[in-house]
Design brief:
This protein is mostly beta strands. The chain has one domain: Janus/Ocnus (Pyruvoyl-Dependent Histidine Decarboxylase, Chain B, 3-Layer(bba) Sandwich), CATH 3.50.20. Helix content is 14%, strand content 39%. It contains 2 helices and 8 strands. The strands form 2 sheets. Strands 1-3-2-6-7-8 form a 6-stranded mixed sheet, sandwiched between helices. A two-stranded antiparallel sheet has the order 4-5. A hairpin with a 3-residue loop joins β2 and β3. The longest helix is centred in the middle third of the chain and has 12 residues. The chain is globular, with a radius of gyration of 14 Å.
């Protein structure tokens, strides 16, 4: 059954004790696994394509993403998955507030419909005020 998953990519201990975190995110839809939103801190991934590359290497070993030489785009080699889009995020931990916006040059606009509700119901952002 398809579900909804949240993954946060950060440099080890980078998020410990930090009140404000920000970076980029992508939405991936897999026919069998459902939707996954992958957040990466700005120090971890400069481009949206690097987020997908890291996600494939660290979480989906059977998937392959062919990142171009510049690191800002590539091709996902997984027939049952596609990137829905991407954007920017900023999280205020103390206030329990997550802000989403922007767009990805590599993958286009993210799908905002129902995203705040899905994220609020997830373990990572449960109880957060989520603004798009």
């Amino acid at each position: 059954m398809a579900g909804f998953n949240v993954v946060v990519l950060a440099i080890k201990n980078e998020t410990d004790g930090e009140d404000v975190l920000n970076g980029k995110f992508i939405q991936i839809l897999h026919e069998e696994e459902g939707e996954t939103v992958v957040f990466a801190t700005e120090s971890r991934c400069r481009y949206h394509a690097q987020i997908l590359d890291a996600f494939c290497r660290e979480y989906r070993a059977a998937w392959r993403f062919d990142l171009n030489h510049k690191g800002d785009n590539g091709v996902l080699q997984e027939a049952h998955a596609r990137v829905l889009g991407g954007g920017l995020w900023r999280c205020y931990e103390r206030e329990r507030r997550l802000m989403l916006g922007g767009t990805s040059q590599a993958f286009g606009d993210f799908v905002a419909q129902d995203l705040p509700q899905k994220l609020a119901a997830s373990g990572r952002f449960a109880g957060y005020c989520i603004e798009v």
